[in-house]
Amino acid sequence: MTFGPDCISVPIHQNSWRGILFRQIDPRSPIPLYVQIANRLRVAIATGEMAPGTALPSVRNLAAVIRVNPATVVQAYRELEQAGVVESRQGAGTFVRDLAESRRESERKREARRLVQRMVQEASGLGVTHEDLESAWQAELTKRGS
Amino acid sequence: MLAIETNDLTYRAGKDFELRELCLKVREGAIYGFLGPNGAGKTTTIRLLLGLQRANSGRISVLGHDVPRHVHRALAETGYVPERPHLYPYLTVGEAIRYHGAFWKGFDHGYAGELIEMFGMPEHQRLARLSKGEMGKLHMLLVLAQRPKLLVLDEPTDGLDPVVRRDVLTALLDFCSQGSTTVFISSHLVHELERICDWVGVLDRGRLVTELPMHSFKQGIKRLRVSRAPSLLGDTPFVLLLREQTPFDEIWVVRGWQAPMTQWFEGAGAELKEVVDLDLEEGFVEMLRASRSTSGL
Hints:
Chain A has about 150 residues and is mainly alpha-helical. Chain A is built from six helices and two strands; from the N terminus they run ααααββαα. Chain A folds into two domains: about 1-100, Orthogonal Bundle (Arc Repressor Mutant, subunit A); about 100-145. Chain A is globular, with a radius of gyration of 19 Å. In chain B, the strands form three sheets. Chain B has a six-stranded mixed β-sheet, sandwiched between helices. In chain B, a hairpin with a 2-residue loop joins strand 5 (about 55-60) and strand 6 (about 65). In chain B, helix 4 packs antiparallel against helix 5 (about 130-145) and helix 5 runs parallel beside helix 6 (about 160-175). Chain B is elongated and about 70 Å long. Chain B starts with a strand and ends with a helix.
């Protein structure tokens, strides 16, 4: 790969794809940060964005890149391990497990439900009716489908 | 085990300022955010913890050492970035590192070199010619290379631009993930603390308003929209901090909230219309408003 004259290379720990993966992490949300990080990784695994056997970033690296407490990352990884979506190998790190398609599908559906729940909740807080939401939803799908 | 503990710490300065019966408990390995408005007594508390000022009464223990009696033992393992650090302006960056390093037994010159590289610091530049941001990085570098068990940071990123703040926090977190350091960080940059801290203590007018794990603080404090509320309430399962009338309904700010508590409203003949989550900043502001209204000030 060649770089143009305006392109500078920066150390990987400061500008890796991992930071981009976690750009939606919101420290102000009432959902604890470790849950947000774990969920984001579950989705990436379920959609295939992170393939089986992929190494998760080290705790040290991820904490520094997304600027969260290292203990938060440890907690997120522990939750993923308990859920059986990743496995830690002694001394080597934490890796994405090879999940059955049915499992990946149920993870994707879980995320879809979460997204819809958030939308419906926000709408009712604003006083937008379910009918209005429904028709906007249909219109958006039609637009995307065309 | 506790890295910092104070019992009934009281300190008076003139008629107008008093730290009253402060009981701080900072667990080992925690990143503890010490929040409070300007003038709340954060810097004074820090100076008391490090034996730079003497309390009128109460007890202080830092890393298991009694302060002020054995403060030198505590300080040998503590990295401290004061609000206004002093470094000799005619030293170069490299000289300042060697000078500072001479005072600390376990000072890690190799690590200091890594940090110089990571921060992109000009090693041969005199401190007088460094920008504010570069000075901020240098202060963090010096305390991290001490490899302390406890870091006490008084507004470490105050006045720094966002890029420098990021670099400084990244270095701090990278250091924290290498071992079990305790970090006691005072700041009014609430959003920054929200990312990194797992404990929060809120100080206002010399009093500790609350001290909780970050998630309990954020989960527990809510703003509720309530209608048809009776003017006299019996026992509530939550702590009602504030109650305000609006033309349509009432706004309550509560503490110790849990989801099943929505049932209480039916029994009380009121209607709970909305539960609004608060972020750390809003929670902090509401808590201060409440503590000030109850203390009659």
